[in-house]
## 1
Amino acid sequence: MAYLLTSDPDYFLAIARNKNGSHRLQKLIGKSDDADNLFFLAIFRRFLHIMTDKYASYVAVRGMQVFDDKKKELMYEHILPHALRLACDKHGHIALNEVITDLDHPFYRDHLLDLVALNALLLSYDAYGNYVVQHVLTLYDLRCTYNIAVSLLGYCVELSFDKCGSYIVEKLLETEESMVLVVEELLECEGGRLMRLARKETGSFVVIKALRVMQEMNRVDLFRGLVQKLMPFRHLLRRPCGNTTIAAIIESGC
């Protein structure tokens, strides 16, 4: 059965792209070594087409979960040079996130995370790539998180004005090393621009989170610096963000 399904690469791709076909293939993968050899070769022949398809991508991800180590390594080797293309694809970014989640090989995991961190600026401005950056930050790999923060130096304020970008900045505020870099950039921002950020819905969440985490981590110097910078505009910052106003936090800090 595996031979018949995989003997024609285009036929295999057509099956994998079908919702029911994809589901059936996923069930067949992992049943026997001989069949897996055929499925592996079929996936490899049409790798990018499969990884960037809504349903076919699940077939490749399933393979990377159950194939033997040698096959997995060959697939990881193939992913690395195409990772950015996958990250910026409508369906490829979902498949890439699945691969990153399941990747338990230290060498390839580090290489893939480093690739995302190095290209974090490009990905953060991409409609799909930003979800890959967000996903990597949820892994709480401190080295990778710090490297992403370094890649985004000078752009955190600008990203905070955007809905997806603000999610990335908020996640950077969840670890001390990257938090400091973000807050220092906020402090370097002109008072008027920081006020506009604090008044924008997406930006207000970033500013509130920055103030809160600095209080929780007892970074009095950074907290007071932001409070002083926002104080002249506190009358403009009374609009609630959830159940909190930035003005209330500022005044409590004083």
## 2
Amino acid sequence: MEPRFNLMSTEYGTKLGKRFGSTSQAVFQSSLPRSTQELVMLRVSQINGCGFCVDLHTKEAALAGETALRLHLVAAWRHSTVFTEPERAALALAEESTRLADAHQGVADETWEQVRKHYDDDQTTALVYLIAMINAANRLSVTVRNQGGSYEPGMFGDLSN
């Protein structure tokens, strides 16, 4: 399957991409642990079937020191022993926020309580924005058929700066 369209091929597309990237960069610079950010982005991308984003976040997480074991188990995090309680809360929020159509009541109160137990106000804000932004990025990539497999770590620069 070939990509349909390059969203960054026009001046207007580049303008929108930069603004989208600015919001994401602000989240990346938050105090929300980078490992948690990568795990959340990977899990949401898996749910949404975005090959490009799964490729990107797997490689970026590995480059940042994430273990192969945890990367392999993120899809089955509920049945794994390698994730901390704060990571589990973030992953639960990511899944429930992503699968809104499947969860008639949206995010469960219990999930929200766990997030608030482990994350301060700024980290919670960053987490909610992160989930929204990766869902949007997945939808952009899936729509234009960006393909996974060719991402090179760091090709978009250091996202944490």
